Amino acid sequence: MFSKVSGPVRLADRVAAILAEEIESGRLAEGDKLPTEVELVKQLGVSRTVIREAVSRLRNAGLVEPRQGRGVFVMPQRTRPLDLEAETGAGASDTKAKVLQIVEVRRAMEGEAASLAATRATPQDVDRMRQSLAAIDEAVAAGGDGVDEDLAFHQSIAESTGNAVMVSTVRYLGEVLRSGIRVTRANEARRGDFIEAVRVEHHAILAAVESGDARAARSAVRRHLKHAASRLQDADEGFWTEADDLEVDLDAP
Question: Is this model's pTM higher than 0.85 or not?
Fold first, then answer.
């Protein structure tokens, strides 16, 4: 059914676009079952990670529905929801603009989440945040990028608010944030002082939440993300050219 995917593009975006086109054209109709993960890997020539991320994006867009033990099925056509995962361009400048826009969204949402968490977090919530920060250090020490662990830390803050809508929204944004955090952490890994700065900023957020200081917690998150944007702005154009292909390199089968 499909041809192999290649080229200097984000693979998960490309696969999601291919599958979405099959659905929107009617070649995959309402109620149809998508090919299995193994079949898609073979047909498209990408890794399982890429397939899973692409299917997750289709699910978030309301195009498909995974059914336990049965597979992934095409949903009825309906009004398309806001799609924050749509590709904005293919060049280095587009990558930079998109990541910086993501940082702006995170500043607004996560600053408020931290403020609420400071007044609502239980000791167990704080322990979960602390464990997430330790996991970031362990991942980096083991040679990883710490992206999943970084996301887990910010997700734990949202969960500590007790606000189900905020938790769901942060979870929905997860795939978009993952791309942005992957690029920011790739940039920060280029310099030891950046790595230490991020670590200090994360612990400042935790300290403010643990102390119950809502204003300090909000400020700590906003300061952290303001500095993240500044670090990205300082990156040379060569980094952004590499970043545009970053997901291809990381997700290569």
Answer: no
